[in-house]
Amino acid sequence: MCIMLIKPRYEPIELKLLRFLNMRMNLSPKEAGYLLNLEKGLEGESVFDKWLEGLSNSWLIMNDLLLEANNSTFQIDSIVISPDTIYLFEIKNYEGDFYIKDDKWFTISGKEIKNPLLQLKRAESLFRRLLQDLRFSFSIEGYVVFVNPNFFVYQAPLNLPFIFPNQIQRFIKNINLRSPKQTTKTTRFVEILSSVLLKENPYNNLPQYTYEQLQKGITCSRCYAFVTRINRDNLLCKKCRKTEKIESAVLQSIEEYQLLFPDKMITTNSIYEWCSIFESKKTIRRILRKHFLLMKHGQSAYFESPQDKGDI
Ligand SMILES: [Zn+2]
């Protein structure tokens, strides 16, 4: 990769959590729809990230920004920075046919969706305000990028800041004709912007769930279906046929448990019950002892990951 990627894009923790919950409980249609949206969103953003890799290394790129200005929070999918201009991108992975009527957007079946232009305008104006507050001046060019080749919108006016799938390559080529020299201004800007980024709480929009309610077992790292044990050392996912070593699968399962229940202790018993595919606790105890620190507190004992210890 030759671009200067200041803030890469990670798989959102919220998405991970929802995938886990989707396997272990029944999501309502609304929650399942939200999960699907997150999946499609991330897929679309990854497509655009690949395009941005075509930029020369004189551009600075930051992804997935959660910011606040004028007492409102707003999110930006990607920004590309040069000393005079910041490009701001709202990425859409819409698929299928759409039409616009009186500034409103509809799917071909007539369901109204959020107007992406309004979303872009809102982010753009709040970002402008933020730059003012931070005392930086750049000109800002915002675009909605439609990355899905199976997307079409009827009656799209010509003068709107839209980049359609077959225009992305040309767009990248055009901005790449410029090779901006980054200055202390841009370095300082990146530093300051990084310091005001907000952190989203991934638990805010999750459905309610309890430990008791969730189905126990180890899930496949590829397709999230429940796996079965086939011999001493291996597990098999019957859905996608992936085999996995027991040790790495248990470690992943512990990670899942910790993400879903950050307040619960890791003990041999709790992980044994959570994985629920072992006859004895021996394997679990062995894995925990190998990878975690045994902590004793009065009568009780629990495990902590070595990384957690390092943070204290
Ligand atoms: Zn699988």
> What is the string of SSEs from the N terminus onward?
EHHEEEEEEHEEEHHEEEHHHEEH
Domain count, please report it: 2
Question: Low-confidence segments, ≥5 residues, pLDDT <50?
Answer: none
Q: What spatial form do the alpha-carbon principal axes imply?
A: globular
Gyration radius, in Å: 24 Å
Average of per-residue pLDDT values: 92
| Major β-sheet strand ordering | 1-2-3-4-8-10
Structural class category: alpha/beta
InterPro entries: NERD
Pfam families: NERD (PF08378)
Protein name: Nuclease
Protein described:
- This protein is of the alpha/beta class.
- It folds into two domains: 4-195, Trna Endonuclease, Chain: A, domain 1, CATH 3.40.1350; 227-311, Orthogonal Bundle (Arc Repressor Mutant, subunit A), CATH 1.10.10.
- Helix content is 37%, strand content 25%.
- The protein is built from nine helices and 15 strands.
- It has helices spanning 13-24, 29-52, 116-133, 168-176, 184-195, 246-260, 268-275, 282-291, 306-311, and strands at residues 4-7, 60-69, 72-81, 85-92, 96-101, 104-107, 112-113, 139-146, 151-154, 162-163, 227-229, 234-237, 243-245, 293-297, 300-304.
- Strands 1-2-3-4-8-10 form a six-stranded mixed β-sheet. The chain has a four-stranded mixed β-sheet with strand order 7-6-5-9, with no helix packed on it.
- Helix 1 (13-24) packs antiparallel against helix 2.
- The protein starts with a strand and ends with a helix.
- Zinc ion binds at residues 220, 222-223, 225, 237, 239-240, 242.
